[in-house]
Design brief:
Blueprint lengths: L2 E5 L2 E5 L4 H38 L3 E5 L5 E4 L1 H7 L3 H4 L10 H15 L4 E9 L5 E13 L2 E11 L1 H23 L3 E5 L5 E4 L1 H7 L3 H4 L13 H11 L6 E8 L5 E13 L2 E11 L1 H46 L4 H28 L8 E3 L1 H13 L4 E7 L5 E4 L1 H18 L4 E12 L10 E9 L7 H4 L17 H11 L3 E6 L5 E10 L1 H11 L9 E5 L3 H14 L2 E5 L2 H13 L6 E5 L8 H11 L5 E4 L6 H4 L8 E2 L6 H20 L1
Parallel strand pairs: 14-16, 20-21, 20-22, 22-23, 23-24
Antiparallel strand pairs: 1-2, 3-4, 3-7, 5-6, 6-7, 8-9, 8-12, 10-11, 11-12, 13-15, 15-19, 16-17, 17-19, 18-19
Helix pairs in contact: 9-10, 10-14, 11-12, 12-14, 17-18
Length: 674
């Protein structure tokens, strides 16, 4: 039987087949077939991947024969250019290239066919509907045995990118124009304060050129008066991602002060400050207009004030003049004279009170302060006003309420004004609640107060409230919405609190009542204790030699009469020169003066301060009491700083002068009786 063997594509017969060789050969064939099958599977997988890529990729892919015929295009290519498979049968590469690009594309095509590499090229394709499609792509050539068989290109449609890029450029241009042409002052600042960029309005306002900005820091621009505040504000801006209101003063290149206000916010990346963006407005002119408006309003208020003062003083002068005239008509009737003089004294005291109120209201009016705890003062003043009324008061003071350094009379006046207003707002009765709390004002605050310790007082009523249109005028002099009342109460209260270094605010919501809030600087308890120690050392009976210095003869004569009545020996001088002469003469005669009562102002000559300076140079132990009708003079409030040992404001009563002299001359009495 014949067998057929196959070996190296040759077929032959053998009469004696070798089973071992045959088996080996069969295994080799099986391995070869399995390897081919694996290759086929791998190729199919790659073909599927390639097919998925070419059909799903957004880039345009085509393969072209050396003669320009299309061998292959992907789905994106057809979707973008619109050509069908049927169109591709008769279409050549140069048919889809725009005429303006055909020459350059032909050169590139020939370079590719010759084996040169082209990294990137831009051209324009023509879609079936005539649209021009700008593309950017890479191309390479496949060779077989050194012969080019296909050129494959992968292109990206730049139309959308160019539209977006153009839109971006236009947007940038719009914002740049807005940035440069706005009248607002815009600046970008690095976290260290270095200016990064400013707009034209900024440069024109402050007078710096673009070249100068590169070496300029924000801290070089801030006015010296605003440095500390602005540094703290800048630190806050670069630590929190929120908008911060800015109101400060910058110094221009020529030294001019520019008031600015606006907002600042910091941009952060990964929690780190990158730059601060600030938009300001030059409000210098606005501030000036506000100042002029305030001046006009003050002039208007002064007109109202002057009219009110004239009315009140004319009434009091009428009472004084009328009672004096009546007393002169009844000289033979002591009882009637006494009655008329009492009425005259009452009218005079009311005139004194009005004068003190006006001096308190005037600019620079300084209170005569002493350390005190305010809770008792408020309680006593309130109880006095509400006695016999249908209004109740609830006190809510902290047990450890800090002390204040204040003019007790003035603060009592503030309390009475607020309580009177509250009680009048509750015609059918009600409750006034007065709160007192300790509060510490931090460096960063919305309140216009110096940082430190304060007491916060709140006067709450259950009355009819204050109308919204009246709130802005509530502290104006002689403004009142009531039929009775002078309209000076709240204006004077405002001035008193301001002169104490504090703040008074009002809040009212229609019929829900009104709350007045007062902030007063607090002091330590040690000051109160020392002050009370001095105040408690009272001696009622007085003796001593007193020299009076006053330019007004009537005042000198009246003062001497009072002092003689109190048991003192007194004499008087008209000015500083005469005072020094008489003081030295008394020392030479071994009859020195125990005390001087000195007027603060002597027209055309030395006043109390200058005269006392010269006397202290001659006698460091000289004692002097300052007395003046200018109760708003700082010497009256800070008399110890000027060398005086006491103060008595004019006009004064016998009782008031006696009280002051008793305290000052008490050591003298002790020395005489020892």
């Amino acid at each position: 039987m014949q067998s057929f063997l196959i070996h190296q594509d040759e077929t032959y017969m053998t009469n004696s087949p070798d089973p071992t060789v045959l088996t080996k050969r069969i295994k080799e064939l099986e391995q070869t077939i399995a390897s081919h099958e694996q290759s086929i599977v791998s190729l199919k997988n790659k073909a599927q991947v390639f097919d998925a890529l070419k059909n799903n990729i957004s880039d345009l892919i085509h393969s072209v024969a050396p003669d320009g015929n299309f061998l292959f295009v992907n789905q994106a290519w057809q979707d973008t250019l619109g050509y069908s498979n049927e169109d591709l049968k008769t279409l050549k590469l140069m048919d889809i290239v725009a005429p303006t690009c055909q020459a350059s594309c032909e050169v590139i095509f020939q370079d590719l066919l010759s084996g040169q590499k082209v990294k990137r090229n831009n051209t324009v394709f023509i879609a079936k509907d005539g649209r021009l499609i700008k593309v950017e792509g890479r191309c390479n050539t496949r060779f077989i045995d050194g012969t080019a068989v296909a050129m494959t290109g992968v292109f990206r449609d730049l139309s959308e990118y160019q539209v977006n890029a153009q839109a971006l450029l236009e947007s940038e241009e719009r914002y740049r124009n807005l940035f440069e042409n706005t009248t607002d002052l815009i600046q970008l600042v690095a976290p260290d304060g270095q200016l990064l960029y400013v707009n034209r309005a900024w440069r024109e306002t402050f007078g710096y050129s673009e070249d100068e900005i590169a070496n300029l820091s924000i801290f070089q621009l801030i006015s010296p008066d605003c440095q500390d505040h602005c540094i703290n504000t800048f630190k806050r801006v670069i630590t929190e991602p929120k908008i911060n209101y800015i109101d400060t003063v910058f110094t221009a290149k020529d030294g001019q002060k520019i008031n600015i206000e606006g907002n600042a916010i910091c941009k952060f990346i990964d929690g780190k400050p990158i730059r601060t963006q600030c938009i300001f407005r030059d409000v210098t002119q606005k501030k000036r207009m506000e100042e002029e408006l305030n001046k006009a309003q003050k002039i208007e208020s002064l007109g109202v004030l002057a009219g009110g003062i004239a009315h009140d003083f004319n009434n009091l002068l009428a009472a004084v003049l009328g009672n004096v005239s009546l007393a002169k008509m009844h000289l033979n009737s002591p009882d009637k004279i006494h009655s008329y003089l009492e009425n005259t004294e009452k009218a005079t005291l009311r005139a004194k009170g009005l004068t003190q109120q006006l001096l308190t209201f005037s600019k620079g009016g300084a209170p005569i302060k002493r350390a005190t705890t305010i809770s008792d003062l408020i309680t006593d003043s309130t109880a006095f006003i509400l006695r016999g009324s249908n209004v109740n008061c609830v006190y809510d003071f902290a047990n450890d309420l800090w002390a204040v350094e204040a003019d007790e009379g003035q603060l009592s006046q503030v309390t009475q004004n607020l309580v009177i207003n509250a009680s009048q707002a509750m015609k059918d009765g009600g409750t006034i609640t007065i709160h007192g709390r300790n509060i510490t004002i931090q460096p960063v605050t919305d309140l216009p107060l110096v940082p430190g310790q304060y007491i916060k007082l709140q006067f709450e009523d259950q009355g009819c409230g204050i109308e919204k249109e009246h709130l802005s005028k509530i502290f104006d002099p002689y403004f009142t919405s009531k039929q009775s009342g002078s309209g000076l109460g709240l204006a004077i209260s405002y001035s008193i609190i301001k002169n104490h270094g504090g703040l008074i605010q009002v809040h009212s919501e229609g019929v829900r009542g009104t709350t007045f809030t007062i902030y007063l600087p607090a002091i330590s308890d040690e000051v109160v204790s020392q002050n009370n120690l001095v105040e408690n050392d009272n001696v009622t009976s007085i003796r001593g030699r007193i020299l009076i210095m006053d330019d007004e003869l009537l005042v000198r004569e009246m003062s001497m009469e009072i002092l003689n009545y109190l048991g003192c020996k007194s004499t008087a001088a008209a000015d500083g020169h005469e005072t020094i002469k008489m003081y030295l003469q008394a020392q030479e005669n071994n009859t020195p003066f125990d005390l001087l009562i000195m007027d603060l102002t002597i027209p055309g000559s030395m006043g109390g301060v200058e005269t006392l300076e010269k006397l202290r140079a001659l006698d460091p132990d000289v004692k002097a009491l300052v007395s003046s009708g200018y109760a708003n003079d700082p010497v009256m409030a800070n008399f110890k700083e000027y060398g005086f040992c006491g103060v008595v404001p004019k006009p004064f009563s016998i009782e008031e002068l006696n009280e002051v002299l008793s305290k000052i001359l008490a050591p003298q009495k002790t020395k005489l009786t020892s």
